Amino acid sequence: MTQTLAAAPEDWQRGLAVVAHPDDLEYCSVVPEWTSAGRVISYLIVTRGEAGIGAIAPADAVLIRAAEQRKSAELAGVDLVEYLSYPDGVIQPSLELRRDIASAIRRHRPDVVITLNHHQNFRSGAWNSPDHRVVGCAVLDAVLDAGNRWIFPELAGEGLEPWGGVRYAFVASSPQAGHAVDITRTFDTAVACLAQHHAYLDSLGPGDPMSDPATLLRRKAERVGARYNGRLAVALEVIPY
């Protein structure tokens, strides 16, 4: 029996999206829908994606990917993109990572956090990237850290008072997704956002299904829509706090 997805919560205004790499959020396709509805989304990217393009040296890749991410964010209606500059591909679970994300949550004071699949596998069964798993888990933990004065107490000394106002975490590409967002209205914008990542897409080669944004995102959105409302949609795991 096909699982029916529920509508994702809409009772929020400010979101902080925390992911491992440039382009992670563009593959999720949902940010333009939220910003078009007047919500404010900021990006925190844990690495600079320097290991993601095999043919381009890391020092050059950092500059290229930052420029492409900036253009993509502008199209998505996102004004602020920040980086933590952890090493791409080898992020380790650590208190430092939790502290850095908790610090950002205290600064931005979001109603929701958005991240990528933290589980070992995707819905297809494919193995998930270690960077995605580590960052996703750190984001979920950092929400609790951000609201507790006695975890990372030095943050208050830096002027960052605790923030316990996060109501939900939205996890994209999760095998445990139970909710969805209709993106029919902003689907073309989502495709344009992903298409800005020219260097990464070109590195995949024409035969790779990940290299064709329009076809890839439409197929994903149609699969989700079949479990939701028959339109184009993105599935989310919603974790309440």
Number of helices: 9
Q: Quote the distance from N terminus to C terminus.
A: 30 Å
Fraction in beta strands: 15-25%
Main pleated sheet: 8 strands, mixed
Question: Residue ranges: pLDDT <50 for 5 or more in a row?
Answer: none
Radius of gyration: 17 Å
The CATH C-level name is Alpha Beta
Number of domains: 1
Supply the CATH superfamily name.
LmbE-like
Kindly report the spatial arrangement of strands forming the biggest sheet. 1-7-8-6-5-2-3-4
Shape verdict: globular
CATH fold-type name: Rossmann fold
Fraction of residues in H or I helices = 25-40%
Number of strands: 8
Q: How are helices and strands ordered from N to C?
A: EEHHEHEHEHHEEHHHE
What is the structural class?
alpha/beta
At CATH's second level, what is the architecture? 3-Layer(aba) Sandwich
The average pLDDT score comes to 96
Task: Describe the fold and architecture.
- It is a single chain.
- The chain is α/β, with parallel strands linked by helices and 241 residues long.
- The protein has one domain (6-240): Rossmann fold, CATH 3.40.50.
- Helix content is 39%, strand content 18%.
- It has helices at residues 24-28, 31-36, 58-76, 95-108, 130-146, 154-157, 187-195, 198-204, 213-226; strands at 6-7, 14-19, 40-47, 81-86, 112-116, 168-172, 179-182, 233-240.
- Strands 1-7-8-6-5-2-3-4 form an 8-stranded mixed beta sheet, with helices on both faces.
- Helix 3 links the parallel strand 3 (40-47) and strand 4 (81-86).
- The longest helix is centred in the N-terminal third of the chain and has 19 residues, at 58-76.
- It is globular, with a radius of gyration of 17 Å.
- The mean pLDDT is 96.
